[in-house]
Design brief:
The protein has 7 helices and 17 strands. By secondary structure, it is of the alpha/beta class. Helix 1 crosses helix 6. This is D-amino-acid oxidase.
């Protein structure tokens, strides 16, 4: 098999899809205006979502009727990469906690070592004082330490025959691209390249802070602990008064602190921002990202976090597309070419990257997805040496 396939976009979805197809025997080329490793100031490119992952492998803020299948496929590949010591893949003891009783999402059934939290154990789980009741759960969660994982993913693609061509793609030149099959992984650039049947194109703006060289947060069992924590709406809420969450994801390069979810429409981004903010390097962000995380980290880990610390702010977009069936993973004919769309991942671009790539493989191959999955695992084992670093 040597069919030429072009992938538009070099974010995590584009690179993962290209690598998957390359390992399955296709001849792939990624067309992209920007290569992620060449960008020094990511705040100049808020729509390039792969500059900003935290990156937990949890299907947050994404909408698809294929979610379970896509997630489980991705999860299995990430666990295999973990066994092979692929750079940046770690497993945390992750908590999702609320001060008011939440609805339990379906994905709780898909996570390993899931446990509901108990009020009798409050002192041993992330919380802010004074809190008498907590709701939620914990599970084992895969994390992709982004400063390690993304460069390694790109290198693996290039080392296995993949090609990247830096070129701005426009709607006018789609018909001139030198391949009969095109995979569209251009994210927020997709509606400018192809017609989109969705009326609304929703994006969610998020604020992140990076505290470099911060220590890993661990429990008495030596497990790295991360969390999403939602206080009562009076403490932290979105523009509609709905309770909002903060989080801390410890990585080898420091802590990633969040968060915010400010909904806007692609092409006319207007954000409702609270007057209750901190400001760093000219970037305003909800003050609760620092203040609440500081309380939680101090209470459980006896470690300090302050607005006076050296914190690096970032502001990026998650492309939700719409809340009915936001993920677009389908094919159509455009300019006599087969175009397979792979965008609208919301906050789950990393999480669903391998599952979406395998679904695309199913559309291209004459074999079932289980077979493609097994072949991909076999090929990954060949190209990722055990105990690599």
């Amino acid at each position: 098999m040597s069919e030429q396939i072009i992938i538009i976009g070099s974010g995590v979805s584009g690179i993962t899809t290209a690598l998957t197809l390359q390992l399955l025997g296709y001849d792939t080329t990624i067309y992209t205006e920007k290569v992620i490793t060449d960008i020094s100031n990511k705040n100049e490119h808020p729509k390039f979502a792969s500059l900003f992952p935290s990156a937990s492998v949890i299907p947050h803020s994404v909408y698809s009727d294929q979610l379970k299948k896509l997630f489980k496929r991705s999860q299995s590949i990430f666990y295999e990469l973990r066994k092979l010591a692929f750079p940046g893949i770690t497993i945390n003891k992750h908590y999702e906690l609320w001060e008011s009783k939440p609805n339990r999402p379906d994905y709780c059934n898909w996570m390993l070592n899931y446990e509901a939290v108990s009020d009798t154990d409050i002192e041993n789980i992330p919380h802010r004082p004074p809190v008498d009741n907590l709701y939620g759960w914990s599970f084992n969660c895969i994390f992709a330490d982004w400063s390690l994982y993304m460069p390694a993913l790109l290198d693996t693609y290039l080392q296995n025959g993949g090609t990247i061509r830096q070129k701005k793609i426009t709607r006018k030149i789609i018909s001139d691209l030198p391949a009969e099959t095109i995979i569209n992984c251009s994210g927020t650039g997709s509606p400018s390249l192809f017609d989109d049947p969705s009326d609304k194109q929703l994006v969610v703006r998020g604020h992140l802070l990076h505290k470099a060289d911060a220590p890993l947060l661990t429990n008495p069992n030596g497990e790295v602990v991360s969390y999403n924590y939602t206080p009562k709406p009076a403490i932290y809420s979105d523009s509609k008064g709905k309770a909002a969450d903060v989080y801390c994801y410890p990585r080898k390069d420091g802590w990633i602190l969040g968060g915010s979810r400010q909904v806007g429409t692609l092409g006319s981004e207007e954000w409702q921002v609270s007057d209750n903010y901190h400001e760093i390097e000219g970037i305003r962000f909800p003050k609760q990202i620092v203040d609440l995380n500081s309380e939680i980290i101090k209470t459980l880990f006896d470690t300090e976090l302050s607005i006076k610390d050296e914190l690096t702010p970032a502001v990026g977009y998650r492309y939700i597309r719409n809340k009915k069936d936001g993920l677009r993973l389908e094919s159509e004919t455009v300019s006599n070419k087969k175009v397979i769309h792979n965008y609208g991942h919301g906050g789950a671009g990393v999480t669903l990257s391998w599952g979406c790539a395998l679904t695309i493989s199913e559309q291209l191959l004459s074999q079932e997805i289980d077979s493609a999955h097994d072949v991909l695992l076999s090929e990954i084992k060949k190209v990722v040496p055990v105990n690599s670093s």
